[in-house]
Amino acid sequence: MNAPTSPEPRVTAVAIVGGGQAGLSMSWHLKQAGIDHVVFERDRCFSEWRTARWDSFCLVTPNWQCRLPGFHYAGPDPHGFMLRDEIVQYLDAYVAHFDPPLREGVNVVRIERTADGRFLLTTTDGNWIAGQVVIANGVYSRPVIPRAAERLPQQILQLHSSNYRNPQSLPPGATLVVGSGQSGCQIAEDIHLAGRQVHLCVGGAPRSPRVYRGREVTDWLTESGYYDIPYERHPQKATVREKTNHYLTGRDGGREIDLRRRALEGMKLYGSFRGVDDTKLQFAPDLARNLDEADRSYNNIRALVDQYIAEAGIDAPIEPPYQPPWSPSHEVTELDFVDAGIGSIVWAIGFTPDYGFIDLPVFNGRGHPIHHRGVTPVPGAYFLGLSWQNTWGSGRLADVGKDAQYLLDAIRRTDESCHARAA
């Protein structure tokens, strides 16, 4: 009796791995160009926006920056900041707008090169052969929680920022938030504004002004062309790709976050988290330095705006220099979590990408993608949605479509090259 044979792999010109804003922006461009393709999404499209955001979450950039290709924001409040559910509605409307060839609930477990230079994708819905492949599964795949968390007692509820929902869902007692990036600061504020005691570990994240000299800073930086500077010409060069996002918020119509003011209101601030020793939480003595560095970034952005206003000859109101309203009198490097009554900890120290399924020589010694604007050394293999893939807006709702357009041109060139060799 003959053994059953495996079904033949299905074939597509381009396979896209990931059904978020990056993958679907790529799909929009491919569909407009009439190029056969498939989008694989292991969950539901835009799943992170649906399930990994807290209840009061809102955009930190104005609504007008929601400009996915072919579907710019057209609502009544371009300078507002959409709430989580409104963002999901916008994204769902985008999918309905152009009906991409999306296969939800299909996980790509391996990508490898075939002998003829194409790509074999092993998925939970069978095998596929693709002429080219775009990796767009995002950089926020695996939540980071330090091993020190294992030394905390079970009665303390521990959550990653992606699992936090609201202050009411936390147990009684104070909350320690570890991490002062965008999520950490906004979650700490959310709990603080609910009247709960918050302890915050402040890391090296920079902060940004919200409104300066009469206008939203995002408008100034867009108008001046700053957001269009490619990373190769950025003053910080390629190191800008390693930087944490500036913290500010779209809450209450949009405002900046000044942790010094929150300290005056009773939020307890510490330096970077170091570990746990018995009932003691340990912190680095770097709170003052981290606050000063965040302010330095804040003031540098103001200076960029000042320079643009002066060079363009714009009449804009003058604002006084920022004066820190609070500074730590000493560095607290240890806190007894029992004495402090801490009942919950929110780990807001980020994510790591998941590239374990990619069996291609497209990574450097640190495991980071090797690419130029998403084009890798392997012909036909691309990344999309990376932070600072080209500019500040790369990977964001603002400009991920521009990066997808660039890859469309690369996909066309590779396809023409393959056809020329075959002829």
Automatic annotation (TrEMBL):
GO molecular function, one term: monooxygenase activity
Keywords in alphabetical order: Oxidoreductase
InterPro entries in the cross-refs: Auxin_biosynth/cation_transpt, CHP04046_FMN-dependent, FAD/NAD-bd_sf
Keyword Oxidoreductase: yes
PANTHER family per record: FLAVIN-BINDING MONOOXYGENASE-LIKE PROTEIN (AFU_ORTHOLOGUE AFUA_4G09220), FLAVIN-CONTAINING MONOOXYGENASE
Protein name: Putative flavoprotein involved in K+ transport
Organism: Sinimarinibacterium flocculans
